[in-house]
Amino acid sequence: MGKVVLVTGVARRLGGRFVRRILREPDVDRVVGVDAVPPGHHLGGAEFVRADIRQPSVAGVLAEHGVDTVVHLDVSGVQLLPGTRASVKETNVIGTMQLLGACQKAPSVRRVVVKSSTNVYGSSSRDPAVFTETTPAKALPGGGFTKDIVEVEEYVRGFARRRPDVAVTVLRFANILGPGAETPLAEYFRLPVLPTVLGYDPRLQFVHEDDVVEVLRLSAGEPRRGTLNAGTFNIAGDGVLLLSQAARRLGRPTLPLLLPAIRWTGTALRTVGVTDFSAEQIRLLTHGRVVETTQMREVLGFEPRYTTAGAFADFARAGGPGLLPPERLAHAVDRIEEVVRHG
Fold first, then answer.
1. Backbone angles phi, psi at 333, to 5 degrees
2. Are the CB atoms for 204 and 240 separated by under 8 Å?
3. How far apart, in whole angstroms, are the C-alpha atoms of residue 74 and residue 33?
4. Phi, psi of 195 (to 5 degrees)
5. Element (H, E) at 342
6. Comparison of pLDDT for 169 and 82, the residue scoring more
7. Confidence bin at 270 (pLDDT 50/70/90)
8. Under a CB-based contact definition with an 8 Å cutoff, are residues 166 and 110 in contact?
9. Residues contacting 272, CB < 8 A, separation 6+
10. Closest among 35, 179, 173 to 114, alpha carbons compared
């Protein structure tokens, strides 16, 4: 019998894509998808179990199916169903705690992969130019998804100490983009006009959703020769984009605002349900964040197909032209230059 893989968060689009991908692996015998709500997409040949990972009953799922590999994707800054911020935090933090507690008691479990985020480093004016996996955050988060991620990783480290026989992999993803991305930053870039912080032009990194699925697949399997897929890894595409460059490539006009005004704008947008314009996202759009990915290549042995610019270009193509399409704007500038030249 091949591996039995349990995947959490399968009601989300990314979870569904990963389940369908891992099913094609020759050494995978069965895949069990777990979520508190039924998925709106198909899961291929995977078995769906409706279970809330915040409840101790998840231990029964591991035991019943003899799971040996757990891929924990139910860690997100965006709520799947209408609810409060508290319910998102409970799923992220309490859900991870319960899941890891169940894994600790399950002798069949041999590998655990956890989806994390580069949000763990925060964003502040005192940040280094580039974060490595061992760089501590310069400003501790006071709340929000960033604090959730910090707590999630603390639980993961505790589990790794208690079960040294289990290979534990933490993947810190940069901002995930792609045609179907469901992230706060993707929602921000879909706005017709992009509010920005006056006087700041942050550096941003992205990872394509296709690369996310592939690195999860790589981490869930046995390591290839010369690689090690246990540990903590930054996952991002090569290069960076300035926020101003991203806006131009989208054809979206920007609206520079003073920091107090953009906080008020974020509150207004959240109130009407347009986008999750949280305090941590405002800090990202002020100071940016860039991570080092040497460990991803040299130790994990993963090479993303998409650069940061390539992931953003694919996202932009799916979104259609903005109010100021770059081609049309360039044509208008050329026409003005021609008119000026001829008096």
1. -65, -40
2. yes
3. 11
4. -65, 135
5. none
6. 169
7. low
8. yes
9. none
10. 173
What's 194's DSSP letter? E
Amino acid type, 40: G
In the chain the first and final C-alpha atoms are separated, in Å, by 80
Lowest average pLDDT, out of 153-162, 174-183, 234-243, goes to 174-183
pLDDT at 256: 92
What would the two tokens of residue 275 be? 């986008």
Token representation of residue 250: 């989208």
Residues 151, 255: Cα–Cα separation, whole Å: 35
Number of Cβ within 10 Å of residue 1's Cβ equals 7
**E strand map for 75-193:** 111-117, 167-173, 175-177
In a 3-state reduction of DSSP, which class is residue 111? Answer: strand
Residue whose entry in the numeric block shows the structure tokens 């069949």: 108
The strand pair at 47-50 and 69-72 is best described as unpaired
Q: Is residue 177 within 8 Å of 311, Cβ to Cβ? A: yes
Where does the pLDDT of residue 331 fall: very low under 50, low under 70, confident under 90, or very high at 90 and above? low
User: Would you state the structure tokens that stand for residue 198, as one six-digit string?
Assistant: 């006056």
Location of structure tokens 């899961």? 43
The conformation of residue 55, written as its DSSP 8-state character, comes to S
**Cβ-contact 81, 40 below 8 angstroms:** no
Question: Position of tokens 């959730």?
Answer: 148
The first and second tokens of residue 258, run together, are: 């003073």
